[in-house]
């Protein structure tokens, strides 16, 4: 397995172009199953997760072509017909969001067999809300031997769906199925994440009738068929926030481009409160930090537009060297502090109790070998290492490759001392 070595202490100066959003790209790719015409996605990130999903879509009957377009990487997905309605365990296990092919498969063919994704390191992550939404749309759902068997031989029917709490995945899944249902669907207590708006925009280009995305009430008027379209993936707000935090941690001045600062307003406000210089631009933001120590600030994760849970680990890394005590509350996932003991290996002073972490800032972190446990936790270790004395070795970096495009390249272009050490080909666990 590859490792990443970082020698801390270098200030970051320069520009970092942000890639297309992973969490948008994978739902847009699933949307391609809804039509027999080609869907062309531009501003695509090239990541392990998009490759995993591409493989699954090919198994289901899609032709997936990755190519270089005028505006960077693009992917054309063309599913003339669904050749198999089965999404097997080996492929769904590799990436949870693969489960979202279930809705499009039932919507297009009236049947599907998709593996349950199972839990993951950040929590149990059940899919009960997804299944309930599909049942409301008229699908019959049975669970056997780890698989969901879904049927709607006479098609899906529009319905009123009230989510008991906000779920990004369940809202997207309901939308992906309801676009081809007969009649109107109303989603109440829907998630408002920008990736959801992006999905609605793309579906509308394909001929769907979705309104209200970005608010907690989404209306979908079902249509008989969808067509091909060309759609540019929105910028990755988690990558944007991660590099903003990396710049704040290392010090220096970094301009983040090809992105949108309004996607991470909550984070930028917190960073300013801590003493980081932030200038918002049309296509991103400049993050500036001089030599002084930052102030500890408190955060609580919440659905969008609240503080993103996917930036919590990275923010904690920044707080490990702030002046004072920072309280970090995680309200979305039950087990999302696995980075805390790894940060402690670098000298951080963190105590965790239930959904709350208290971070008492130390003057300096010290490099050490650490282990990445999930995608966001891995990158929080990279951020911490940028300001630690000596060398930090981050092991198990395959998590990083799932969600960050050319991370070492983007950071080293700004002066970070970071390099990848190729692994010995040992299998991943
Ligand atoms: C998505 C993002 C992930 C992000 C999360 C929250 C993708 C691929 N992933 O994940 O990066 O951290 O949103 O912003 O877009 N839940 C249930 N039952 C369900 C569905 C969810 O109990 O049927 C729970 C989850 O376990 C979690 C909470 O609801 O505790 C929110 O999860 P959800 O918003 O669905 O996250 P994902 O869509 O899985």
Structure commentary:
- By secondary structure, the chain is an alpha/beta fold.
- Strand 20 and strand 21 form a beta hairpin.
- Helix 10 (312-319) runs parallel beside helix 12 (375-386).
- 51% of the residues are buried.
- The protein has a four-stranded mixed beta sheet with strand order 23-25-1-26. A four-stranded mixed beta sheet has the order 2-15-17-16, covered by helices on one side. The protein has a four-stranded mixed beta sheet with strand order 4-5-3-14.
- It contains 14 helices and 26 strands.
- It has two domains: 3-17 and 235-421, Enolpyruvate transferase domain (UDP-n-acetylglucosamine1-carboxyvinyl-transferase, Chain, Alpha-beta prism), CATH 3.65.10; 25-232, UDP-n-acetylglucosamine1-carboxyvinyl-transferase, Chain.
- 31% of the residues lie in helices and 27% in strands.
- Bound molecules: uridine-diphosphate-N-acetylglucosamine.
- Uridine-diphosphate-N-acetylglucosamine is lined by residues 23, 26, 97, 123, 125-130, 167-170, 309-310, 332-333.
List keywords for this structure.
four-stranded mixed sheet, alpha/beta, binds uridine-diphosphate-N-acetylglucosamine, UDP-n-acetylglucosamine1-carboxyvinyl-transferase, Chain, 429 residues
